[in-house]
């Protein structure tokens, strides 16, 4: 089933408004453009490092600045700006992101790179909000969210392959960022097919809707889960090296994990209505913790492969269920608009927090930290369920 077919099946099943299948697919693509960098960072930032544009520490700052900016951008657009003139907003954000990518291609210093990627992140966050604002208006937001993560991951896989095989070998990191800029400009054609005005959600109280214990617990659970993945992913190569696995093999694992993420997202889309979100989040959190412990135990090559593929599968499998948890926490759906921000902050903060525990060349504390954050996400789910039951929400 294509995204458009799926969207058409959902037509008429909206809290407010009734976008066509094409309009929904267009909004999901605009949001996917905003998250392309998540799958391209290993290729593009790795090329920046290889070419000597940044040191290892500077590379971490570049990546972290962009992810935090994406989270901030998505929260600002979703919470503070009305969902009006979405075609113009999409077009302006795409042009801004294209310019930031072109700036990155020709930035001469590490500070310029950090500034360029921070600007890119703000625009990317705004593009993500174009999709999440519409997803929040569906009665089956978790299913549409599944389509969203599937589309964005497929786009990341395809573009990562093109950049790795053609753009970067031919023109280096600059060629990769220029290609990404042209993707943004080509997407301007799609921007004019998103719904221009989204019907209003009942969110007059704005931040008051998420300043409740259930909403805060739900968002913190999502934040902790993505801290787990961010920590492990950022240090996967040195973790592998510590246990005798070379960088090229780890690179193959990362590529295979992207494919596993697609499979996980598609599987969740099929089964999301058949599995209770509390059960799904609990089981996945436990799998994440066990996988992290196995990484810290000094696994052999086969087990390392299995753990990396499992982590890739569960990363996006959990997203529709996290969306359901956020909707349950706040029926006005203001909290669900902050789900991307919680995810991205987790991805950004996880590596920073884990790096504080690294002792010289010993990276075992990283997966140990990841196991703790995965369990914390499950415990916070427990807090959410207890409080929500008392309020009659769950």
UniProtKB/TrEMBL annotation:
UniProt-recorded name of the protein: MFS transporter
Bilayer-crossing regions: 27-49, 61-81, 88-106, 112-135, 147-168, 174-195, 207-236, 248-270, 277-297, 303-323, 335-357, 369-388
Membrane-protein topology: Multi-pass membrane protein
InterPro entries given in the database record: MFS (IPR011701), MFS_Efflux_Transporters (IPR050189), MFS_trans_sf (IPR036259)
Subcellular location: Cell membrane
Keyword field: Cell membrane, Membrane, Transmembrane, Transmembrane helix
Major site of localization recorded for this protein: membrane
């Amino acid at each position: 089933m294509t995204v458009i077919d799926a969207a058409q099946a959902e037509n008429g099943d909206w809290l407010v408004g009734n976008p066509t299948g094409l309009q929904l697919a267009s909004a999901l693509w605009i949001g996917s453009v905003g998250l392309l960098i998540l799958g391209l960072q290993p290729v593009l930032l790795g090329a920046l490092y290889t070419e000597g544009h940044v040191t290892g520490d500077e590379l971490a700052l570049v990546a972290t600045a962009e992810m935090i900016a994406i989270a901030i951008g998505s929260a600002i657009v979703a919470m503070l700006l009305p969902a009006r003139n979405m075609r113009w907003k999409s077009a302006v954000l795409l042009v801004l992101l294209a310019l930031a990518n072109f700036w990155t291609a020709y930035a001469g210093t590490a500070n310029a790179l950090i500034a360029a990627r921070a600007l890119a992140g703000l625009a990317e966050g705004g593009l993500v909000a174009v999709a999440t604002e519409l997803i929040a208006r569906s009665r089956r937001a978790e299913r549409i969210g599944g389509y969203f993560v599937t589309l964005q991951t497929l786009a990341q896989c395809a573009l990562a392959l093109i950049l790795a095989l053609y753009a970067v070998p031919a023109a280096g990191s600059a060629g990769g960022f220029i290609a990404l800029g042209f993707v943004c400009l080509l997407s301007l054609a799609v921007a004019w097919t998103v719904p221009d005005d989204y019907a209003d959600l009942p969110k007059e109280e704005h931040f008051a809707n998420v300043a409740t214990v259930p909403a805060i617990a739900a968002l913190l659970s999502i934040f902790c889960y993505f801290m787990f993945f961010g920590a492990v992913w950022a240090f996967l190569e040195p973790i592998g090296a510590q246990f005798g696995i070379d960088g090229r093999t780890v690179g193959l694992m990362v590529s295979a994990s992207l494919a596993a993420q697609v499979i996980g997202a598609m599987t969740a889309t099929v089964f999301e209505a058949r599995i209770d979100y509390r059960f799904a989040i609990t089981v996945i959190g436990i799998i994440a913790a066990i996988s992290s412990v196995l990484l810290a135990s000094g696994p052999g090559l086969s087990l390392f492969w299995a753990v990396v593929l499992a982590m890739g599968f569960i990363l996006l499998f959990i997203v529709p269920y996290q969306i359901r948890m956020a909707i349950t926490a706040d029926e006005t759906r203001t909290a669900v608009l902050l789900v991307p921000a919680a995810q991205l902050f987790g991805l950004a903060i996880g590596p920073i927090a884990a790096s504080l525990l690294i002792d010289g060349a010993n990276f075992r504390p990283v997966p140990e930290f990841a196991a703790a954050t995965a369990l914390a996400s499950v415990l916070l789910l427990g807090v959410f369920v207890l409080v929500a039951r008392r309020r009659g929400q769950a």
